[in-house]
Design a protein that fits this description.
The structure is a homodimer.
Chain A (H helix, E strand, L loop, with lengths): L11 H20 L7 H8 L3 H5 L5 H25 L6 H14 L1 H9 L4 H19 L11 H21 L6 H22 L1
Helix pairs in contact in A: 1-2, 1-4, 4-5, 4-7, 5-9, 7-8, 8-9
Chain A binds a DNA duplex through helix 1 and helix 3.
DNA sequence: GACAATTGTTACACAGTATAACAAAAAGGA
DNA sequence: TCCTTTTTGTTATACTGTGTAACAATTGTC
């Protein structure tokens, strides 16, 4: 299998092949069920030899993971920026920014929610987001609180992804500004209130 | 394919075969990855002929769906009972009942969360639970509310399933009574508060 | 231009799905 | 109990998709 060094040092043929395979997979997932896509179908679409796929990836899942990992890291950055904003008045703006980012990378998120095989990736995304929220919740917790911060963090992370999924399925309406407000009220304020009070 | 009348009128051989196949699938999923289970492996385990599987089901997914549908209906009943309880003081007890039911049907829920192919079933479960919660939220909504009840219902349904999944992964601790309290504070009270206030 | 790395072509072994035809066993009614 | 119907088992076969091997052709790099 060809080396996978820094993208700069990589052989241009390898870069090209992998890019073409990623693009072909994205196109195929958006037009049909992921489970029904075969490697032969992918390589035909990408116009590369069948065996070439195996020279770069062990499975379609691995290729899918490479495609999704790309964008999920960026989402996490947005959420981290948001979480560090202790200025509550700015939270709505930051919430809006999340949904504007999703709007921009629409295809990527459509794939994340569409294909069942992305479940593993969703789980790791949830874990990363949950860790961020967990840190935000920790200082608010009272000594004998009923709600463990681990549960609160997980709750917020999954709720956010669910809200994003709902939004995408509803053709991205209402607009990001409105979604930012919903996000703040339903997930941030509600959860923080529950942790602080219970 | 043999007829699928009321379970009473069904041929005893058909009832037996399908029961054995269901049991074998449950056993296999609990001990290995669902995606790696082949039909031949299933029929070997069930000690029936390979072709017999196709005389009853079109795919492993269909069999899995039959297994899960069985128990998810009952869960919904518990949640409906809970939602109709307007007496807030009793909500904790009802929340406890949900987690006691899950404790009882542990294997079923482990399978629901373990296998990616159960995603479709999870979605339909979420839809059903969301509809129940949506009705609970509707009367609380103010005229120009920021949060649509559809989002609130979806949020509560997914949060509940996430809480259940977290609980199962944590070996079902804390106990159901404690989980009932967390459920009430984090999901019911927090969401209702957000809908009524925002 | 020479060498190394990557890609393409062809062939093949293998596992899993799905079906057909016929034999064996079990259920149910007279 | 005998007879008929239905279900299950056995064997064979076609088909699709995965994964690898050997070697030729192409492309990148020094």
């Amino acid at each position: 299998m060809p080396k996978k060094n820094t993208p700069v040092k990589m052989d241009p043929r390898v870069r090209r092949t992998r890019r073409i395979l990623r693009e072909a997979l994205v196109a195929l997932i958006l037009e049909k069920d992921y489970a029904s896509i075969s490697i032969r179908e992918l390589t035909d679409r990408a116009e590369v030899a069948y065996i070439t796929f195996f020279r770069h990836y062990e499975s379609l899942d691995q290729l899918l993971m490479e495609v999704l990992d790309e964008g999920m890291g960026e989402l996490l950055v947005h959420i981290e920026v948001l979480a560090k904003q202790s200025d509550t008045s700015r939270l709505e703006t930051e919430g809006r920014l999340i949904f504007e980012y999703i709007q921009q990378k629409g295809d990527l998120f459509r794939i994340l929610f569409k294909s069942q095989s992305a479940a593993r990736i969703r789980k790791s995304v949830v874990r990363n987001i949950a860790a961020v929220f967990q840190n935000s919740c920790a200082p608010l917790q009272r000594p004998n609180s009923q709600i463990p911060v681990k549960i609160a963090g997980n709750h917020m992370a999954i709720s956010l992804l669910a809200l994003i999924e709902w939004w995408i399925e509803n053709r991205m309406s209402p607009p990001p500004s409105q979604m930012g407000k919903i996000y703040k009220a339903l997930i941030i304020d509600a959860t923080i209130g529950a942790v602080a009070l219970a």
